[in-house]
Amino acid sequence: MKPPLTTVRKFTDSLAFMELPVFSYIDRNDFAIVKMEELGMPLPYQTPVFRPDHFSIIIIPDGVASYRVDDTVFKLCSNNVLFIRPDTFLSGKWSSLGKAYYISFSNHFLLHHWPAGIDEIQKMGSKKGYAAWFEPNMIENIERICLDMYDEAVCKTPYKYEVIANLILNLLLLIRQQQYTEKPVKAKKHNCYVAAFIGQMENNFSRIISGETTAVLRIKDYAEMQNLNEGYLSKIVSNTTGKTVNQWIHEKLINEIKYLLKNTNKPMREIATLYGFNDLNYFYNYFKRHTNNAPGYFRRYCNAIAKPGTDYRNIVVNV
Prior knowledge:
This protein is of the alpha+beta class and 319 residues long. It is 46% helix and 18% strand. Strands 1, 2, 3, 4, 5, 6, 7 and 8 form an 8-stranded mixed beta sheet that branches. The two termini are 25 Å apart.
């Protein structure tokens, strides 16, 4: 059974949506830490699909879970850590839960309290999710950081969020160190305008899913958001990434449509309307032009090859 897709983006709202406790010490939307065993989830527990507006770090000293980040499934067990970027389709299923921590924080939180943390995130590559297994002594160090962070979160000391941001940076450094140990991340060109464009594009599609807009932004919109000339933005995006702005937008739109066709039962017309296609025939032609398949055939194919006990829709990553 496919988990339902929600329009919820904030971490506290997702807890409330699942009818799980929102603890009184969680007093803001841009940061939270919870001990997951204290949430009282009946096991096995399947979450709905969310589209968070925040980064997430899940630390599992003791437990078994699987998380789907867009179309990638991460099978997690004890001593695993999962890092997830914002603006991704996210759902999880817990089979057992002895001890685990869930940390959420926004880009704004780090920029305000410890800007160096953003640099570390940029060095971790562009994948939506990254999971790693740590040696027991390392997971103990990570858990101590989590406990220090939790203690700061529940207290009323001044400058506690600066301390928390520093602890998040320590976690990011440990995750990145493990990432480089397993497979060095190839350095890529970085440009602040390109990074802003990609972030704004991801946010645009998240706002579409949450029902805040039906407008797919175009190059003119992104250029205006950064007070740039369209030609200049197009040039730097193309030179930095090897793809044009329009290619980025079309690829993102097609991937969003594919996800909904594969992972939800939304009617075709509803999906088309969601992304501003008022003419259903134009929607069919657009999808077929970019994928060589009609959307109905694509959905039927995905459903036809589904087998009990398997997840045909995803790339499965064992860690």
